[in-house]
Amino acid sequence: MLARKAGIAATSADLVNPLPRAVIGEWIDRAATRLGCEAEPVETTFAELEQQLSRVECALLRLPNSDYLAILHGSTRTVSVLAPDLSIHRLSIAQICEAIREPLEGPRRLEIEEMLEDAGVPKRHREKSVDAILREQLGATRFNDCWVLRVPPGAAQWRWLRQTNAPLNALALAAFHAVAYVLWIASWLVLGQSALQGRLDRGWLLAWALLLFTLVPFRLLTTWFQGLLAVGIGGILKQRILAGALRLKPEEMRHQGIGHFLGQALEAETLETLALNGGIAGLLATIELAVACVVLGRFAPVLLVWWILTVALSWRFLKAYRRWTEARLSMTHDLVERMVGHRTRLAQQRRDQWHEEEDRALDNYV
Is this model's pTM higher than 0.70 or not? Predict the structure, then answer.
């Protein structure tokens, strides 16, 4: 139910409860696999436990008394947990951490309190002093009874996008940018009308300034959600590339060669940068074009014709750019293969023929 509630379960398989002596970590891993998701054990320390819980998303947490918390997501001070009746409740992170540390802190607390009493520490300062000493003594203690549920790297793209909240971030980005753009146009509309009508008084200037000040938080929110969207999708790309590299078979390596994979690795960073920056800019430009059509009124068809011409030229450029990229990848592959086999070329090929194929490839590339 936790996986379904979080939207990461691909199937609705019925799970059999683990046997009393079963290793719970192995059972959770098998159960997650049956549901089409992935369960990753997470290890942390008591010192970092509160920070980790505030950032956790969809996790199972085992308490010292063998109870479990089904955590949907965390925030600064609380976490949202799924109850047995499938209702959602909020629990304090401090209380959860206290329950986890209690079996180790309990026996030591009495000893530390007696020590502070013998040392003459005032009673009003004792509790804070005990907590500080316990944090110092037990801060490095490891805690590994936590499993994070997430979408496996090889899953469909839409499942990954849902897990990173990419659709909601994209909608929020579009909405805030649209409001900011309308406010920006309205500010210049106010200033332009007052100037053209010869009534540049204090009231119109104040309205213009208020519109500009109102614009600031929307611009900040636009930048914030643009960062969330870029980081989320960038993380997806990197995880999928790594998952694909780890699943490569020896036959594929022998068929494509070292140079081909090196070229792909070099292009991956460029792909991420261009796709994120260009994709987000394209999304925001679509909104600006829609607002511009409203502002232009009866002149909007001129903008539409210009837009169609731009799309046609961009499509032509895209096809040429694709051929250029394929040529660059092929050249990277050939270069690496020649570097690896340079001794063979020295022994079997005439000196005046060493660079004929490279010259042809470079000429085609230019």
Answer: no
